[in-house]
Amino acid sequence: MTTEVVGTKDPGAAFGARRYRDQLFGDWGGPATHLAAERERLAALSWEHFSVRQLSATVGGQVSGVDLTASPSDEVIEELRQALVEYKVLFFSDQPLTAAEHVAVAARFGTLEVHPFIPGNPEHPELVRFEKGAEAAGYENQWHHDVTWRAVPSKAAMLHAIEVPAVGGDTLFSDMYAAYDALDEELRERIEDLEAEHDFLRAFGAQVPEDRREEMRQQYPVARHPVVVRHPDSGRRLLYVNRIFTASLVGLESAESDELLRQLCRQAERVEHQVRFTWSDHSVAFWDNLAVQHYASSDYWPERRVMERASIVGSAPRR
């Protein structure tokens, strides 16, 4: 059989550099032109005390030339602080941190939180410990910012890999500036003044004994945050709703709230907005908890994956 080729041009030539909306699923396709300026800006950055290799269009940088175990100088810490603002998440290899060293270096960036619903390192409660295996599987495989159920969520987190499986257990990060920039003008206007409710019970209700629920609710009432937040350091706007902790959009009927939340949360799933990190023992990820959401791939059961995270206290999200 002979196949007649009727196309005379690449299919993309009909669209140029325009995106299109899929009529069945409602998602956009085509070139992610909204990433171009940020990709080029990051590519032009240089650093005095270390080097950073850009890992995706707008998010993720692999840092070389920094030993986190060696009490970095104030100048290095300040430059890392700025690099975090720019790349949104920084990755470090071969950082055999003790728990005390992990706490010490993370505390250079601000006051550390203690998580009330996840057990910590026995000697350092500031370190949330994720010890996964055959009996305790990974459930962090939904896109989320950490602890948005707090009135003041963490601004950043430093995660240290203590033991990782031979295959699997990657963590993905998605750029929430890019997620906001990808929205069409009509949707941006629709969400401009909306607030969302965030509730710890959605994820941690089973951790709280029934006789202590009221006490915990008093300590951690349902938090309200803007759907669109302005980052205090970059000044840029970002999308701030997530699948794990966001319960509803204030002022909308339940069905409308659910549908709009689904539409907004899907923005984190765009591959063009993401970077994927494959762990090795003693690698570190340091992320901006406003600027990115993350997703821990749960594809390694029943193998072991042991991580510890220090989270840095932030400020209340603002428009």
Write down the Rg. Answer: 21 Å
Q: Which quaternary structure do these chains form?
A: single chain
Task: Give the N-to-C terminal Cα separation.
Answer: 62 Å
Q: Architecture, CATH level 2?
A: 4-Layer Sandwich
Q: What is the tally of helical segments? A: 8
Instruction: Sum up the overall morphology in one term.
Output: globular
| E-strand count | 17
Please give the domain count: 1
> Helix coverage percent of residues?
10-25%
How do you describe this structure in short?
This protein is α+β, with helices and mostly antiparallel strands and 319 residues long.
List keywords for this structure.
single chain; 319 residues; Double-stranded beta-helix; 7-stranded mixed sheet; 3-stranded antiparallel sheet
Structure explained in plain terms:
The chain has helices at 36-43, 74-87, 99-107, 176-181, 185-191, 201-204, 213-219, 254-265; strands at residues 20-21, 28-29, 51-54, 61-64, 89-92, 127-132, 154-163, 171-175, 195-198, 223-226, 228-230, 237-239, 246-249, 274-277, 284-288, 292-296, 305-313. With 319 residues, the chain is of the alpha+beta class. The chain has one domain (32-313): Double-stranded beta-helix (4-Layer Sandwich). A seven-stranded mixed beta sheet has the order 3-4-5-15-7-17-6, with helices on one face. The chain has a three-stranded antiparallel beta sheet with strand order 14-8-16.
List the topology elements.
Elements (H helix, E strand, L loop, with lengths): L19 E2 L6 E2 L6 H8 L7 E4 L6 E4 L9 H14 L1 E4 L6 H9 L19 E6 L21 E10 L7 E5 H6 L3 H7 L3 E4 L2 H4 L8 H7 L3 E4 L1 E3 L6 E3 L6 E4 L4 H12 L8 E4 L6 E5 L3 E5 L8 E9 L6
Parallel strand pairs: 4-5
Antiparallel strand pairs: 1-2, 3-4, 5-15, 6-17, 7-15, 7-17, 8-14, 8-16, 9-10, 9-13, 11-12
